[in-house]
From TrEMBL:
Family: Belongs to the G-protein coupled receptor 1 family.
PANTHER family, per database record: G-PROTEIN COUPLED RECEPTOR
Keywords: Cell membrane, G-protein coupled receptor, Glycoprotein, Membrane, Receptor, Transducer, Transmembrane, Transmembrane helix
SUPFAM superfamilies: Family A G protein-coupled receptor-like
Domain G-protein coupled receptors family 1 profile per the UniProt entry, residue ranges: 59-299
UniProt xrefs under PROSITE patterns: G_PROTEIN_RECEP_F1_1 (PS00237), G_PROTEIN_RECEP_F1_2 (PS50262)
Topology term for the membrane: Multi-pass membrane protein
Main function: Receptor for MSH (alpha, beta and gamma) and ACTH. The activity of this receptor is mediated by G proteins which activate adenylate cyclase.
Organism from which the protein derives: Xenoophorus captivus
Subcellular compartments: Cell membrane
Protein name, entry field: Melanocyte-stimulating hormone receptor
Transmembrane segments: 48-68, 77-104, 124-144, 165-185, 191-220, 241-266, 281-301
Length: 322
């Protein structure tokens, strides 16, 4: 990453190859300004990045604290949701740190040595990459957990023990961090982009297969579970599956343009149409931050227990503030 004011201004770009592309293509156009290719480039205020990042950060911290505080939420599914919140928090933290550095630099309030900036950029890249890899992994983990709950309800607690859940969490985080470091180290190789896109598509197919099986055959198992007087558990399991469906849908909508960006880098890096798409990368970053902001709202809306605990935390914070 070039250590000049232009590259610092566009530090929001997450991966070094994308930074190089944007450093060549970005201009200081205002909202609605058209370039020579009749492309519209939307300029996103840095203050908007900072505001959304801070809101998302607070929301995800509250979700994590609520799960830790409420013992009724100490179950494998909520452990995985907690990890998903941590993944979203990585996006928020990296965004807030980037934006603060850019604002301070733009107002000439801070001088950062190029070497330090390079290290900071690498750390932020690893955080963002770890976030997307871990988010996809935990979405698959939650889907598998819901699948076991529905189709192996009577053996669920023997299959998905707390120890196994913790092991899965540790493995996912180690794999996410390790792969992210490798992605950043070898960012100049197109194989990195191919791996990310392949992983994204694979997780979508995996989740789609589980959802199809769950929702097509759930009514059959519902009758079997009811016969054992476990109808309530089946209802809760299906509610969890529906919640996960919403989470995955929001993830695809918010991260989809980013992965389309990666695909276009491989397919048509010099095409005028693709260059128009590349110019609005900051808009895609806003969508990614919005995903981190929306997820906690979904958790609260779909879980009465979590919503109640969040309300208690907010009230406690307000009382201490008074």
């Amino acid at each position: 990453m070039d250590m000049n004011n232009s590259s610092l201004r566009y530090l929001h770009v997450e991966f070094s190859p994308l930074t190089e592309i944007l450093d060549d293509n970005e201009t200081n156009s205002t909202l609605g300004e058209r370039n020579s290719l009749s492309c519209v480039q939307i300029r996103i205020p840095q203050e908007l990045f900072l505001t959304l990042g801070l809101i998302s950060l607070v929301e995800n911290i509250l979700v994590i604290l609520a799960i830790i505080r409420n013992h009724n939420l100490h179950s494998p599914m909520y452990y995985f949701i907690c990890c998903l919140a941590v993944s979203d928090m990585l996006v928020s933290v990296s965004n807030v740190v980037e934006t603060i550095f850019m604002l301070l630099n733009d107002h000439e309030l801070l001088y950062v040595h190029p070497g330090m900036l390079r290290h900071l950029d690498n750390v932020i890249d690893v955080m963002i990459c770890s976030s997307v890899v871990s988010s996809l992994s935990f979405l698959c983990t939650i889907a598998a957990d819901r699948y076991i709950t529905i189709f192996y309800a009577l053996r669920y607690h023997s299959i998905m023990t707390t120890q196994r859940a913790v092991t899965i969490i540790v493995v996912v985080w180690l794999a996410s961090i390790t792969s992210s470091i490798l992605f950043i180290v070898y960012h100049t190789d197109n194989a990195v982009i191919v791996c990310l896109v392949t992983f994204f598509c694979t997780t979508l197919v995996f989740n789609a297969a589980l959802y199809l099986h769950m929702f097509v055959l759930a009514h059959v198992h519902s009758r079997r579970i009811t016969a054992f007087h476990k109808g309530r558990r089946q209802s809760t399991s299906m509610k969890g599956a529906i919640t996960l469906t919403i989470l995955l849908g929001v993830f695809i909508l918010c991260w989809g343009p980013f992965f389309l960006h990666l695909i276009l880098i491989l397919a048509c890096p010099t095409s005028p149409f693709c260059n128009c798409f590349f110019r609005n990368f900051n808009l895609f970053l806003i969508l990614i931050i919005c995903n981190s902001l929306i997820d906690p709202l979904i958790y609260a809306y779909r879980s009465q227990e979590l919503r109640k605990t969040l309300q208690e935390l907010v009230l406690c914070s307000w009382c201490f503030g008074m």
